[in-house]
Amino acid sequence: MDINYDVIVIGAGHAGCEAASAAARSGAKTALLTHRRDTIGVMSCNPAIGGLGKGHLVREIDALDGLMGRVADASGIQFRLLNRKKGPAVRGPRTQADRRLYREAMQKEIAQHRNLTVIEGDAFDISADHGAVSSVTTKDGRRFGCGTVVLTTGTFLRGLIHIGQTTIPAGRVGEDPSEGLSGTLTRLGLKLGRLKTGTPARLDRRTIDWSAIGSQEADEDPVPFSFMTDRITTAQISCGVTRTTEATHKIITNNIHLSAMYSGQIEGVGPRYCPSIEDKIVRFGERDGHQIFLEPEGIDDPAVYPNGISTSLPADVQEAFIRTIPGLENVAILQPGYAIEYDHVDPRELTPALELKKLSGLFLAGQINGTTGYEEAAAQGLVAGLNAARCAAQQEPHHFSRSDSYIGVMIDDLTSRGVTEPYRMFTSRAEYRLSLRADNADLRLTPIGISLGIVGQQRSDRFSSYCEDLDQGRRVLQSLQVTPNEAARHGIKLNQDGQRRSAYELLAYPEQSTTSLQALWPELVSVRPRVQKALETEALYAVYMHRQTADIQATQRDEARVIPPNFIFDHLPGLSNELKLKLAAVRPANLAQAAKVDGMTPAALALLLALIRKHG
Ligand code: FAD
């Protein structure tokens, strides 16, 4: 036996880095065993972090002192707060990242952990003793003893790349697949499935006619992911916006039989909400064009990621269709797009701690559990790493719940419903989304992280001081009172009911803010900006929070409602086509069964309920 560890994390992608960090922060002697040290923190596909639902996950990881938020802040080159005009509950922080800066920042974070050792190697087998994990063996014959293992092999398990009719065994472009571990998982009697994902060609920035296309700018006031980042200091860039044309569609249609996806060569299921360009043309061909964002992969990087045209067509067809797109007529392709198929484990094999039910001490996180996306992988990594460390120390597992976090929503979805296609996070998956906001992730989760021992002193101190400021600010707002007459003299219109209202109550009016109320109470200027924003959101949502609770109770009652056998799901307005198809295939007998259909959201359930009620 080479060395013994409490926890061995296999794979240093997004899940593996968070898992290793969480295990090490929990105090476990941890090893991060991965193919190559220099690929720690590599972004396999799009150079971006966050977005709707995903941004919430990043904030939650950060609130638990995980790495992703800080690393994204150190490498983000185009911060945008999505849904800025909508309510705070559905705003999604997002940034494009400089690939190199992201990788370097992640490697720096990993190197800073005291009880974390990085080992280069190909994990080939995992052994068990008396029904519990005992060691990991590498392909070159080294054996490491351990209390627990976290497996985070991403798209590498029997990975197979497809470019047209060409197939290449690989974990991602230029890297060998992981062959041995699929055998280990099969030996354990686990249910394995096959999924697929895809990526577009990479374009040479110097050969794009940027003057011929539109652009999208970064926000003027970049909002950081991490509660520990005061200000974003990386340079911010804009990205290009263009569209496919009729000529693009024609080339794709004429060559569709050559696409790996449409020739029957790929057996794995891909994410329908993140379709390839072939999918878009086949399914929505009547549209006159599909939007493409040209996202530079870094400040000094010549590669550009054309977001929206992932493909598995042959390389020459890719070049032909890409050159029909405005701005790309003379573009040079640095690397063709491809699809990749890989093995995944049915996540219903896992407990809510992400430990296998069939083998104590073996935890799984990331793409291996049927999810897609860096953020989903990272969030699972944190949970698995934390619980692997707790298991090695013979402590009780910690389960996140649907009511405390998107992390809890995702893990409950995965472990109770399984997946039929790669799972990604959407805000609509959460039934408590008014309380599970990106802006309050620290209030929801940092106290939990502190009690679990995974939050460092610096964050803990900053959090305490923020909570004190928040309490103080709330007290001030509640103590300042005004009558409707006095308010009217300062231009604030209220019901003339003679009732005194506090500044806190006035913030429930969407048109009011701590800034507008300074006309009445100039002292509000002294409340810290983050505290002002937090109290505005808290006051705005206070009344809705009561309604949310009542709605949840009513939905639970409605779950028993029967769906008529002749019900036509196609007639449901506002539902995605894929959900309609799934409902028609499953034909749930009642609302409770419909709720369990993969991809079903609380909003879709409400629509279904309304129509059933109408049916009588
Ligand atoms: P990965 O990031 O894949 O990391 C796996 C790590 O494990 C690597 O470091 C690897 O070297 C290591 N490893 C594997 N096997 C072994 C072994 N036996 N021994 C030691 N180390 C091992 N996500 C989206 O959200 N949208 C997309 O459009 C999208 N498209 C994608 C397209 C492609 C072609 C690929 C490859 C991925 C795509 N993804 C996409 C997925 C995204 O890259 C993953 O969700 C994310 O990287 C998963 O993180 P992970 O940590 O689970 O695995």
UniProtKB/TrEMBL annotation:
FAD binds at G11, A12, G13, H14, A15, G16. SUPFAM superfamilies: FAD/NAD(P)-binding domain. It is found in: Cytoplasm. Keywords: Cytoplasm, FAD, Flavoprotein, NAD, tRNA processing. GO terms for biological process: tRNA methylation; tRNA wobble uridine modification. NAD(+) binds at residues 270-284. Coiled coil: none annotated. Its cofactor is FAD. Signal peptide: none annotated. PROSITE patterns: GIDA_1 (PS01280), GIDA_2 (PS01281). Its main location: cytoplasm. Residues 539-610 form the tRNA uridine 5-carboxymethylaminomethyl modification enzyme C-terminal subdomain domain. Homodimer. Heterotetramer of two MnmE and two MnmG subunits. HAMAP family: MnmG_GidA. Belongs to the MnmG family. This is tRNA uridine 5-carboxymethylaminomethyl modification enzyme MnmG. It comes from Rhizobium deserti. The gene is mnmG.
